[in-house]
Amino acid sequence: MAVFLDRDTRAICQGMTGWAGTHHVARMMEYGTKVVGGVTPGKGGRSHLNLPVYDRVADARRETGANASILFVPPPTAAAAMIEAIEAEMPLVVVVTERVPVLDMVRVRDALKGGRTILVGANSQGILVPGIGKLGVMATGSERPGGIGIVSRSASLTSEVVAQITTAGLGQSTTVGIGGDPIHGIGMRECLERLLDDADTEGVVLIGEIGGTEEEEVADYIAGLRPSKPIVALIVGREAPPARRMGHAGTLTLRGTGDAAAKIKALAAAGVRIAPSPHLVGETIRQALAERR
């Protein structure tokens, strides 16, 4: 079955009545995602996109049976919206908002402890399950149902890799953008665990970049597990200068840590096949899967 998102997913959108929420929720619904309502404080009782609008997440969940929420909420109030969804025990929360203040995300992390909510993001492009639905802003058109799971820190590279995997005749099971901000919800390792346990996923592509320790942590996990499913990694930023942010808030190397070379070394030592270039990811996973078969 699909990871995170399936045919039973019933989603609400926090911030649905704004421009971004309106635009992307309409695209999600066109793709087949079952969106059942929205939340905008002060606009409860109204209708938007032919869907009911509520003042609070708890009300929306109770009235619609929603089991997922996607946030299009500005950075200053995004943490409060996340915590509201967590306190309403929403099983899945996807956050597109970029550059949520770090201290706010510390509060969100604390709210997650001991709860039942899976948080994807902030600064996530979302979740895409071809033929089932999407929660987020991922481009569609080149995706196809298949057996390759994708976990990515990069939005633009995700679209490129999805297209390559489709061209290779493999298709995708689930694609997850974990977010590029320094502090976010579910990480690369947790997503990989779920994909390795998924019967419909035959292989996994990890898309990493400079900054943080996500890739080193997942390398340690792979080294200890030695999974039978092939794993390919693309790590970008080999030529990035130190102490300079590249793109978004999480792509930053400091004091000799978080650089691409160290991440590639750790993953390769764990048995992960490294794609030599962004344009060769599809062919690399195709070869790895063919050798396994």
UniProtKB/TrEMBL annotation:
The regions listed as transmembrane in this protein's record are none
Q: Which SUPFAM superfamilies match?
A: NAD(P)-binding Rossmann-fold domains, Succinyl-CoA synthetase domains
GO cellular component, alphabetical, reads: succinate-CoA ligase complex (ADP-forming)
What is any one GO biological process for this UniProt entry?
tricarboxylic acid cycle
Question: Pfam families from the xrefs?
Answer: CoA_binding, Ligase_CoA
Gene3D superfamilies listed in its UniProt record: NAD(P)-binding Rossmann-like Domain (3.40.50.720), Succinyl-CoA synthetase domains (3.40.50.261)
**Descriptive protein name:** Succinate--CoA ligase subunit alpha
Q: Which gene encodes it?
A: sucD
